[in-house]
């Protein structure tokens, strides 16, 4: 599994608006917020339960996503020295 996130919900919303303006799909902000919150709430479980997971921070527009964490069968095998708040919270 590959999991990508941005520093804030507002950043996610801005990226979605950019894609929608280029002809992509969108959804009401309340639904997007629910998806965002549910996704982060389930990240810790995914890290523990997935056979393999890479977690990326994609906050820097135009740059390659940065690997923040890798886990195999519930064991963290790599964690970046500086992890974003959303990832730190998921690991609690």
Order of helices and strands: EHHEEEH
Structural class: alpha+beta
Instruction: Describe the main β-sheet briefly.
Output: 4 strands, mixed
Distance between the termini: 20 Å
Q: Give the % helix.
A: 40-55%
Radius of gyration: 14 Å
Mean pLDDT: 93
Number of strands: 4
Strand order of the largest sheet: 1-2-3-4
Instruction: Report the portion of residues in β strands.
Output: 15-25%
What is the number of helices? 3
| Low-pLDDT sequence parts | none
Sum up the overall morphology in one term: globular
Number of domains: 1
Spell out the blueprint of helices and strands.
Blueprint: E1 2-5, H1 9-21, H2 29-49, E2 52-57, E3 66-72, E4 75-79, H3 85-90
Parallel strand pairs: 1-2
Antiparallel strand pairs: 2-3, 3-4
Describe the structure.
The protein is an alpha+beta fold and about 90 residues long. It has one domain (about 1-90). The protein is built from 3 helices and 4 strands. It has helices spanning about 10-20, 30-50, 85-90, and strands at about 1-5, 50-55, 65-70, 75-80. It has a 4-stranded mixed β-sheet with strand order 1-2-3-4, with helices on one face. A hairpin with an 8-residue loop joins strand 2 (about 50-55) and strand 3. The longest helix has 21 residues, at about 30-50. The chain starts with a strand and ends with a helix.
Keyword list:
globular; four-stranded mixed sheet; alpha+beta; 4 strands; 24% strand
